[in-house]
Write a structure and sequence with these properties.
disordered N terminus, 3-stranded antiparallel beta sheet, Immunoglobulin-like, 2 helices, 4-stranded antiparallel beta sheet, elongated
Length: 151
Amino acid sequence: MKAVTLYRPSVLENALSDFDRYLDSFFGNNFLSPADRIFNRLPSVDVRETEKGYVIEAELPGHEEKDIEIRLDGNNLTIESKKVDVKEEEKTGAGNYLIRERRASSFSRSFKLPENANSEGISASFKNGILSLEIQKKAEAQARVIEISKN
């Protein structure tokens, strides 16, 4: 009797991993290599510094605001999401499942905030699959112009 099995080609994953190892030998270990992002489903993240603070933008397509959790523990900012798509189906007795996949995804990304970040001045917004975090700098860390007094 023949069984139905799931075919998952590993050629692409192996090729990307080999290429990453080759690059790592020159540039050091990069835990966010393309192969890891593709096969572990880590979201792409941009981090920018502005005059007044820092901005973190994460691409989270298919996620909803209710699936996302943002935690701050000391200077460690963590973004997590757990998502499970379960579709209700009637059991009609039409047969047994040989393969049944449910979409489930989760990730956790952590960032160490710099010393000049104001942990009380963090705001988050989520729109069109993009999570944006704005982190204010402490007042004493912001650049300012000092006037010379005339005596």
